[in-house]
Design a protein that fits this description.
By secondary structure, the chain is mainly beta. The protein has a single domain, classed as TonB-dependent receptor, beta-barrel domain (Maltoporin, Chain A), CATH 2.40.170. It is about 5% helix and about 55% strand. It contains two helices and 26 strands. The chain has a 22-stranded antiparallel β-barrel. Strands 20-21 form a two-stranded antiparallel ribbon. A two-stranded antiparallel sheet has the order 24-25. The longest helix is centred in the first third of the chain and has 23 residues.
Length: about 550
Amino acid sequence: MKESILALCLGLLSSAIWAQTREENGLNVGQINVVQDYKPTLSDAVKINNNPTIKDSAPPIPNLKYSVINKLYTTDYKLEPITPAKMKGEPLQRISKNYAKLGFGNYYTSQVEAYIGSGRSKKMNYAFSGRHFSSAGKIKNYGYTGFAENVIKGYSSFFIPDHILNINGSYQNNSVHYYGYDRDSNNVKPDFTKSQNRQIYNLIDVNASLLQNTQNDEALHHEFNVGFYNFSDKFKNQENSFNLQAMLGKQIGKELYGGQLLFNYYGNQASPDSSEGAILTINPFVRTYGHNWHAQLGIKVAIETDEGKTHFLPDLSAKYNLIEDILSVYAELKGYSYRNSFKSLSSVNPFITPAVNFRTSTVKLDALVGLRGNIDQHLYFNVSGNYKIIDSLALYVHRPHLFDTLQSVFQVIYDNTKMARLYGELGYVTESKITVSSWLAYNQYTMEHELKAWQLPAIEAGLKGSYNLGDKILFGLDVFYVGPRYTRLAQLKQVTLGGPLFNILEEKIKGYVDASINAEYRYTKKLSAYIKLNNLVAKQYQIWSNYPSQRINGMLGVNYSF
């Protein structure tokens, strides 16, 4: 207890001493009692707004009253005509009205051409031309192979109001020699003079047409053509033909309603198969078009007067642009009849017999579908498929040995056939320098009676190209291929009261390639020189069975314009 009182007294004494010490140091110290933590605060400032203000008051809208006094003021204004604008075109380039060509080559080949024209005119144009081309070459172990082609033509066009009247005429004199024969069946070379072995064809042809030269939808569209020819040969065979064509049509909106009338007359005289006949074809149609497409719907009624047949044939066609100016698809479904005349048959094969069997051929169906387009601005293509049904297709075959031991002439026979054809074309064109085009065709024939489509190839192909070097030197290339063909052989089987019977056999003719090149050097714009080489492969391929071609042949010549 005593210790506790003593400790308390010492504590009070220490506090009195510490307080006295502070007072002695001059500090006025008071007592501070801390209740909670200190939190400083800042009062918001008061902002005085000194911006000016505008007191806007809308003025009253006045009530205005006014009146209009009508008064006419007379004016005198004269219009002055405006002179129409004229575009000055470039001056017409001067053209040469006349042209001549002269050339010579091996095998005694010669070529002469001439052309005389009237030049530009707003009233009429006329022109005359003449051409001679001949060769007198020989082929070993064959007859004389010489031939000649001569033609004179005249053209004229008259420009009358809204129409063009064309009148044309020509005369042709062509000669060939029956130089081909079967060497395997003849050990002795035939001894024929040139005159005995020669065939001469003459043609006189005149045509006239009246064509509409305006684009007036209100007018009746019309076109007329008329023609006549006389065709004859050395053996007094003659053929006269007259043809007429008339077309009328009326445009109503997007449709053109029209019709065509075709009349063809043929008369053959002095032939063992002398005959005459005509084909009348009536062809109503409608043509229409739309965006990126156009089409024609029609029908043909063909009447054959000589055989008393009437055919109803389709006349349909259409084209659609899948991509404008780039890719298009087209299709046709047509039919037609045509006469196998002395003129048309001899133009295909000039070595036919003068005793010709004439007949009308009818294409009952000609279906075609294709695709054409441009890969780029220089490269283009065209592919198509074609199917035909043909009554009386003309074929060229040798007569049996019993009637023609030399096998040097062809007779014409006919057979019904179905033909399928695939065709493809690819080309490359530049503006002025290079042009290249190639094509390939595959043909398949299904004959009704004959074993083969005699003399007709299954495969054909071609390649053409040209190069222009500064419009000074021009080069050209022409290559074509003809695949294997078949010729008919008729061997005597037996002789009966009704006549001889023959076994029909086939013989294969090898395919061939023929390549030609040509070049022209233009010394001036009027004078140039040219060279041409044919059959560079130098192979005697058979044009027709037993008719070989000449080997490599060339020609040098000059061209002159004046």
